[in-house]
Amino acid sequence: MEAIREAIRIERLSKTFGNGRRVLEDIDLRVEPGEMVALIGASGSGKSTLLRHIAGFTAADAQPSRIEILGRPIQQNGRIVREVRSIRRDIGFVFQQFNLVNRLSVETNVLIGALSRLSWWRRLTGRFPGEERALSMAALTEVGIGEHAHERAANLSGGQQQRAALARALVQRARIVLADEPIASLDPESSRRVMDMLRKLNREHELTVLVSLHQVEIAMEYCPRTIALRRGKVVFDGPSTALTPALLKQLYGDDAREWLDENEADAPDATQPDDDKSVAIQPGNASSASSLYAFALKPAHTN
Ligand SMILES: Nc1ncnc2c1ncn2[C@@H]1O[C@H](COP(=O)(O)OP(=O)(O)OP(=O)(O)O)[C@@H](O)[C@H]1O
Ligand SMILES: [Mg+2]
Q1: What is the C-alpha to C-alpha distance for residues 188 and 215, in angstroms, rounded to an integer?
Q2: What CA–CA distance (Å, rounded) separates 143 from 154?
Q3: Ligand closest to CA 39
Q4: High-pLDDT (> 90) share of the chain, %
Q5: 252: Cβ contacts below 8 Å, ≥ 6 apart
Q6: For residues 33 and 180, what is the distance between their CA atoms, to the nearest angstrom?
Q7: 80, CA 20 to 30 Å: which among 90, 214, 248, 277?
Q8: Predicted local distance difference test score (pLDDT) of residue 289
Q9: What is the C-alpha separation between 96 and 157, in angstroms, rounded?
């Protein structure tokens, strides 16, 4: 039997933009199929840039590196592979905004997810077979917005639009969802609905989810594992339950104030020694998944 491949595998990824600023630094990550992983970090820490590299929208620095999606390289050594489109079929995208084509109906937006599977003439004529329509209605119903199928996308609330984007990922038969701050512009109730839906896709459809978030509490509630970035480096990768306010303060120092609650940022210092090169953290209730985690907790002050 063939071994199960990682959903996402990243080796030695670094990115320097034209202005000479290194935005991602030597990132090594593996995400197993079926995981739901949060990506956290202050504004500018590199979350969106990392997600864009995984999706093959941005090429890494021209030096040895590799990103694989379900065992297939999407970029290597700073070059996006030629088959990028076919690899992207496995990935559903949800962004903070601009997920849908406003002037099209919700249903058509969701059907766009099926386009890569349709024949060229159907794509040209915009005719979708009944089977695809049924699939799209089922997906919209599943995410709780079936009654809005025939409205223009522009008429949906932000949270409903995000759920339509998730329906599109279902119709596309994506295996992985990359969500970049999908709840950043939503009120708490809509945020919760979108996160509930992401969790449903993860649990019931076995989609692998990597979601960037600003709110650590949401990461802890919904994602068993969190990857924390600071200035382009992975400073923590482990069970979300380990992310105590004290640890966050240790990881982010005064930067934590920017993006954590006052209360969290004011927590007492962590007891771990600051001068160690790395600190091992025991997984809490994640024993079965412990092999998935590389406990790489680096001192925050090396940046
Ligand atoms: N195309 C680009 N050219 C130059 N610099 C860029 C480019 N894209 C991103 N950056 C820089 O890379 C850094 C990381 O940006 P990124 O958008 O990945 O951060 P983020 O963690 O997603 O932040 P936020 O929480 O605000 O969304 C920032 O300093 C940003 O200015
Ligand atoms: Mg971002």
Answers
A1: 11
A2: 18
A3: 1
A4: 61
A5: 42, 230, 235, 260, 300
A6: 19
A7: 214
A8: 31
A9: 13
* Position 302 pLDDT exceeds 90: no
- Ligand 1 atom 17 nearest Cα: 48
Query: Reduced to 3 states, what is the DSSP secondary structure of residue 106?
Result: helix
Copy the structure tokens of residue 204. Answer: 């019931």
Please compute the mean of the pLDDT values over residues 88-103 and round it to a whole number: 87
More confidently predicted of 215 and 209:
209
Q: Which residue has the tokens 């905004």?
A: 97
Residue type, position 136, single letter: S
Q: Tokens standing for 239?
A: 């069970």
Find where tokens 């601009």 sit: 98
- Range of weakest confidence among 9-23, 69-83, 200-214, 241-255: 241-255
69: three-class secondary structure by DSSP: strand
> Token match 């600023």: residue?
21
- Give this prediction's pTM: 0.84
Residue 155 Cα to ligand 2 midpoint, Å, equals 25
**What is the residue with the minimal CA distance to atom 3 of ligand 1?**
17
Distance separating alpha carbons of residues 132 and 151, to the nearest angstrom: 18
Q: Point out the ligand nearest to the CA of residue 42.
A: 1
Beta bridge partners of 226: 38, 238
